[in-house]
Fold these 3 entries.
Entry 1:
Amino acid sequence: MQILHPKFILTPDKILSNHAVAFDSHIQAVGPKEALVRRFPDAALFEEPSALVLPGFANPHLHLEFSANKATLSYGDFIPWLYSVIEHREELLPRCDEKCMTKALRTLLICGTTAIGAVSSYGEDIEACAKSPLKVQLFNEIIGSNPAAADVMYASFLERFHRCKKRESDRFKAAVAVHSPYSVHYVLAKRAVEIAKRENALVSTHFMESRAEREWLDSGTGEFASFFKKLLGQTRPVNDPLEFLELFAEVQTLFVHMVWANEQELTKVASMQSTIVHCPISNRLLGNGVLDLDRIAPIPYTLATDGLSSNYTLNLYEELKAALFLHPNKEATDFAKELIVRSTKGGYEALGFAGGIIEEGMPADLQIVSIPEDLKEPKDIYLHLILHTQKPKAVYIQGVNHA
Ligand code: BEZ
Ligand code: FE2
């Protein structure tokens, strides 16, 4: 048993001062230090007078298999980026072996992330994730808009899903990703969602990331028209967006991006058990614009980095800084608190893991972070946490310090 006594505890909704947290693999008590020391006389006591404790972050959308990318892919504009992924993926994928993915997982961990949703396109990340101390939903992805290739694509998806299923544990779960409405044939998407239903698995899908996706799915026009004609000989989209959304009505789903979703689609998603995953840096770098957070209310949202295929970092503190600056209409101190709450409690909830809250009975997935010495107003702590943190001092998963 350990007792941590920081200057503040962010539960995350509340700021506790003069409190300590006692934990082994789980949080046993939160209360005044003296009471905890009396109750757990054998516990090791750690005084952290210039630090705060908050829950570990959840980063529910990333692509570990593309972690070798730094400057191979073309940023700036979505369709040229997609062409560059297709052109360079045969070179990029082998550049990230299990060691490279383990390194990416380690970066996530030492930067405060304790739970992730990793989209697995090829099954190459299963072992690294299964061995990692992080809590992982591994989203085995299905892709394929050509009906002639549907059986092959489905067989590949199913093989990876079952391989993943065999490695399941309390902290490693087999989940399902349907790549997107433009890239997955309706029948194929339906079959993958059926598996998720049967296996009670979490689902993730990219939805309305770009203007090109909006135009292609609405009217078969725009930049995707020549993309599909040239690459796949296709002249029509394979989904109606609302019918595609309807497929997810009975499963818990993470809808990633949603920048270009219309009112009808948002209303549909609001009626489902779903969360929007907001990736502001990826959206910025691929020229997809900024998600309107006022428009998506009351749908819950959480934040993610996306992969190194569309970001320069997997550090969620960078994503939170970007979110602050990319939503200038939001009052900064209130919005900072919202971002922290959504990235802890909200992200854990979206991933279906217990945690993200500092409360008795929850797993001890925690971060210790230094506080600026000159902080005057405790209520400003959320904003300064985001502005001044690159890396926490310590990161615990199930009570074990990994940083
Ligand atoms: C496909 O496999 O059909 C596909 C992949 C990427 C983008 C678009 C379509
Ligand atoms: Fe993504």
Entry 2:
Amino acid sequence: MSTLAIEGMQWGDEGKGKLTDYFASRAEVVVRSQGGNNAGHSIVRDGKRYALRLLPSGIFNPDVVNVLADGMVINPFALVEEIEGLKAQGVTKFNLLISNRASMLLPYHVAIDHAREAMLGNSKIGTTGRGIGPCYEDKAARLGLRMGDLLDEKQLESRLEGALNIKNRELIAYGAEPFKKEDILKQLHEVMPSLIPFITDTSAYLRDCLKQNKKVLFEGAQGAMLCLTHGTYPYVTSSSPLATAIPVNTGLPLTVVNEVLGVMKAYTTRVGEGPFPTELFDEIGNEIREKGHEYGTVTKRPRRVGWLDLAVLRYVKEISGITHVGLMLLDVLGGLDQIKVCTGYKIDGKLIDYMPCDVPSYSKVEPVYVTLPGWKEDISNVLNYDDLPQNAKRYVEEIEKALGVSVAMVSVGPDHKQTIIREELFK
Ligand code: GDP
Ligand code: IMO
Ligand code: MG
């Protein structure tokens, strides 16, 4: 089976949506396997911009089957709203499968997310406020509802009753409004007809695809540094965005992932709180934010901006088994006289060869920088690698050398066409 996994190598928003859409025309199946509508994947096709949150970015290819797999947390109301929004934008065919094992994210998860963040005050995580953490918590606590419960009224009602018995106590303790089972059931009944036809055993379906040697593309959400276990804990999301989590989140064997395309921006961004060693607080940071339109796809929050961090990228390459890199938004760096790149971290004046594992250690990190020369040309219409300015090529090649992995593609603009191919993947 020919597969390709796309993984964000930083703190999310690296351009996974664009690359997934790019490869979707060669795929038979596109799969999202973790996260929920905390993700915001922007895709520009023929000058038109689309924002996807739950739907896989293969949705614009009518012949591609788009799977929302087992490890996702799915807000049924947000999903129907997203489908309706795309219909209004002219998308007519929804070739979708929704896992019966995927967790169902319900309004009380959103309320708990907001209440917790408010209570944490200065220590808040800066979540997207979509209820993602509380939904995954319920999954682990075995209190969660799953999308398959929508297929069985009795099970749906009894699972919801059990969950609300516990969740409402928590909400009341927070001084928030409790939820009524009847209200949630009523709301669910309104959206169920739109979702039930798509709900199935997607892991069985995907295993069949495997037997039939189909081409399957796995679209990551979030970024490796937001991994619940390996990221900048506690300032992380509540699932693992690593490609190594794909097997368990889809019901496929370990060997399912042939190639992992790590997606990285030519600089770094993050939204929400938490460590960010190369963060810029100056005019250059503002310039990059404006030129790169670095505002959240979902929440519209301004993204924090910083220089490229090779310490992060080397670490992520190792923990995820990245085989190729897609370098995104290189056009945004055009016009700068000089570009800094962090090559490693020092703590107490000594170079370290490990990734800090807690916030106190991150607070001691001093990034070590090299300065590379910039380029003045607008590269957003360059189609061939050789036509890039010398210093832009040097930037790409320095990254390649430092990571020891090939930069297979370079993106110079949001549109599908603004993509320079150096090595063909997923042929
Ligand atoms: P994702 O969450 O990883 O899918 O990334 P987002 O879509 O949230 O954020 C990436 C943003 O960069 C989107 O607005 C894209 O349209 C845009 N984008 C992607 N690639 C490029 C590029 O090469 N150049 C520029 N200027 N914008 C890009
Ligand atoms: P895509 O797929 C960027 C961040 C939030 C917050 C932390 C926890 O578009 O790259 P959560 O709501 O998940 O509990 O928030 O994770 N975060 C993202 N940042 N891109 C994303 O997704 C993100 N999904 C979550 O900002 O810091
Ligand atoms: Mg995004």
Entry 3:
Amino acid sequence: MEKLVIEGGRKLTGEVKISGAKNAALPLIAATLLAEGVHVLNNVPDLRDTRTILRLLESLGLTWKREGDALYIDGTGLRYSEASYDLVKTMRASVLVLGPLLARLGKAKVSMPGGCAIGARPINFHLTGFEQLGVTCDLEHGYVDARIEGRLQGGTVYFDIPSVTGTENLLMAASLAEGTTVIKNAAREPEIGNLIDMLTAMGARIEGRDTAQLVIRGVKTLHAATSRIIPDRIEAGTYAIAIAATGGEAVVKGCDPAHLPALLGKMHSAGVAVDAGTDSLSIQSPVCRGERIAAVDVTTMPYPGYPTDLQAQFMALMTLATGVSVIHETIFENRFMHVAELQRMGADIKIDGRIAMVKGLAETDLFGAQVMATDLRASSSLVIAGLAAVGRTDISRIYHLERGYEDMVGKLTGLGANVWKEDE
Ligand code: EPZ
């Protein structure tokens, strides 16, 4: 396995280009299962997770090729309906093939994803949603065996919690159902709007984009289309926070600031100068003005609230602030795996259930250490801390990082960081 080595203490300057969004690419790649013909997806990031879902689509009979950041996926060859355990266990977003397989073939056998580092992550909302469309879901030997005779039937689906992939799965299934489906308490993340745009281009009839109530009037068939993956708001937020944490001044290019309302508000409150363009963010740390980062409280919420996927990264910033920051993680039950590692770098953090109290170091610094990545976003939190820390930080198990950040070493080097990979 490889580790990431960072010689910290250098201000990030210059500019960094953001890639396509992982959490848009995964559902949009899954949506190609819905129609024959060659789908074109532009601005697709080349990540461990996008490679995983493409392997899954191959196992179902589809073919694809990549040319630069464009993917050409032929949905014609779909002939299998089983997603194996060894693929699903590496990426729980594989459950996103359930909806399209049920819509196209009337059956799907997908391994239960199982939990991951950040929580149990059940899929009960997905399954009860499919049952509202007439599907029978049996759970046996760790697999979901879902099937229906004939076409899915439109119905009303209500999510107790606005599930992102649950909303995406039901959107894809309902697009080919007979009749109208209403999804209530739907998630409103920008990645869902990206999927709605793709499905609409394929011939689906969907109303309520960006709202909590989606109305889908099913059609008999869909056709292949050309779509573009939106910029990765979580990658953009990660680099913006890293620039602020290192006392730097730099531009995050090729992003959509409108997708980061909560983060930009919090960074402003922390004293970071943020200048939002149409597709860029200029970030200036308060340290450039001889001031300190101010402590800010954060509570994670479904979009447009503060994203849980940027909680760990913001906590790294808060370890350097003046004052105490209270961080409340409301989405996942175990998303503080980064705390123990940050503490090993000198951070002063106390956890009480889903609340972390971060006492900023203010006048002193974090120090480099050997730390271990546990999940995707916790890894990026350790990278931010290592960039800001004095001395060398070695981050092991960086395969977690490579699931969701394209060419992070190249992008950080472009911002002036001293970072490289080594064999562990
Ligand atoms: C998506 O996961 C993202 N993944 C996650 O990003 C993100 O953290 C999460 O949404 C929340 O924004 C992708 O889009 C591929 P949820 P998802 O269903 O859809 C509970 C990353 O780092 N729940 O919105 O799995 C669940 O346990 C990843 O890129 C149920 O109880 O999240 C959680 O507490 C991590 N039953 C809450 O709802 C269900 O059937 C929100 O989960 C579904 C969810």
